[in-house]
Fold this sequence. Notes:
Layout: H1 3-13, H2 17-24, H3 28-35, H4 43-56, H5 62-69, E1 74-79, H6 81-86, H7 88-103, E2 107-112, H8 121-131, E3 133-139, H9 145-153, E4 158-162, E5 173-176, H10 178-191, E6 197-201, H11 207-222, E7 232-234, H12 239-250, E8 258-261, H13 264-276, E9 286-288, H14 294-298, E10 305-307, H15 310-325, H16 332-335, E11 336-339, E12 342-344
Parallel strand pairs: 1-2, 1-3, 3-4, 4-5, 5-11, 6-7, 6-8, 8-9
Antiparallel strand pairs: 10-12
Helix pairs in contact: 2-4, 7-15, 10-11, 12-13
Amino acid sequence: MSQKTKKSRKQNEHSTMTDLAAETGLSKMTISRVFTGSVNVRKSTKEKVMAAAKKLGYEYNALAGNFASGRSRLIGVAVDVSNLMGSRYFAHLFKGAHGYLEDAGYRSVIFDTGSEEFADGRRLSRLIDQRRVEGMLAFAPPSNQAEFISSFSKAATSILVIGGRATNGQVPWVDLDNYHAMELLVNHLAKLGHQKIGFIEGPEQIVDATERSNAFHTIRQQLKLPWHNDWLQSGEFSYGAGREAAHRILSLSNPPTAIIAANDYSALGACEAVRAYGMLPGKEISIAGIDGHEIAAEAEPAITTVTQPLEQMGEHAAMVLLKQIEKQDMSPDEATTIFKGKLIARPSTGPAPK
Length: 354
């Protein structure tokens, strides 16, 4: 091996940010912003820096950089871990958010909203302080969210609600357009000739469940559809409760010809109840849900649903949170973002019986 090659490799092994600045003609501050994942850096600048780093063999020490800047670059994720492990909805939201944060040079730490820590706001605040969390993503907080959010707001510099609505008007949020989703389902069934449509609602403490229920009643009233109070039953967003709710509806002397469930798990349970009555979903009675869960596609028959762009929602939530942290200007549309779902019509819905 030549002396020139040895010298070159030795230089590469000890390349510094100063060398990188000389190679690119950029300031060390700009280069640092590239490596710390600042969202306010041009793509061309990032590509230029990364190409030069590869050429010089430069490797950024993230731990040292964070220590020097006095920042942790940690983002808290407030979510019920049991939901994160067992629900496609939460898993895909988290995947989108986590991927964006990782690409931007941040790490995420989970705060289990199902744990005892959430029974003591002071303990929770201390825990957030100890971990030096710079911001918080709150996944699907309950309807009584004021206390829930204040626990974080006292300690975290920035907070964003995802999969729900922030009702205090000060916290940004990202969620599905629940009214639009319900409008898609009711109109789909109405076009199939259904006038008598029942509804299996979700838990009243969940914001999305409340919004979907309110939207259903508003839309059916606008369409002047007939209604009986017994056509409304609680399904608690679960398979078992959805099955029992559908059983109560089907046992009525004048049952509806279609049922919308507030989520896909309840819809799956409703389909099981229909089969238990010796009927076939999509033939004698139609069933539909919301969320676009894999179980809806894999069911027999496959269940009509409204899908959510979950990973895209997670990515957008992370982007907005980082803008908050870096004190960048945001438009009102970014601060409160509603994503529209897409109707997926499947065999569980068919023409109304004659």
